[in-house]
Amino acid sequence: MTSTVPASLTRTAEGSALQAVLLDMDGTLVDTEGFWWDAEVEVFKALGHVLDETWRDVVVGGPMTRSATFLIEATGAAITLAELTVLLNDTFEDRIGRGVPLMPGATRLLTELAAHEVPTALVSASHRRIIDRVLASLGPEYFALTVAGDEVPRTKPHPDPYLLAARGLGADPARCAVIEDTATGVAAAEAAGCRVVAVPSVAPIAPADGRIVVSSLEEVDLVFLRGMMTQGH
Q: Is 115 exposed, middle or buried, given 0-12, 13-18 or 19+ CB atoms closer than 10 A?
């Protein structure tokens, strides 16, 4: 985990219930969910296996260990989890090295949060080496703290990454707004006690108590996030 949060930014303006915003990366801020699937298809093709398109919904948004283990078992490929993890990260890193497209509304939202000094963290199931490459496109200056999937004992769908991020920002998880694109990420955020904005990227996500579903980040701004925190209270 890396943190650069100054003490002055550990609270938002007095009177606001919103203390911090925690954002997923792949599929939420950057349009890379398809990159991961393409990397998986490429790696398994080289191993002599064709991936079933229906498996895409199974592996999306999950931690590397879960997705890789599933694909090894589903294909019967003669490769260890450790070996496959290296191949997938190498292939994905090569793809993002050619440029990472940002999701519509991502830059505007990050700029607004920074302008209002809202403590913001990037919370991803991707490994640190991948996060650091993507941050070059996203802008590391927007995040006071970043949490990678290989830096916590249990990553998404467990609550650990979001609890760690909230603690690192000095925020109460119940007063944190999380923005996620997959059911796995939503489950992690809700297990941590956070309010969630779901922006589905691949598979649909249903609205629920404490969760709002939108079609794009372009629907989300600071007024929206602060208003969401007061609903149900």
A: exposed
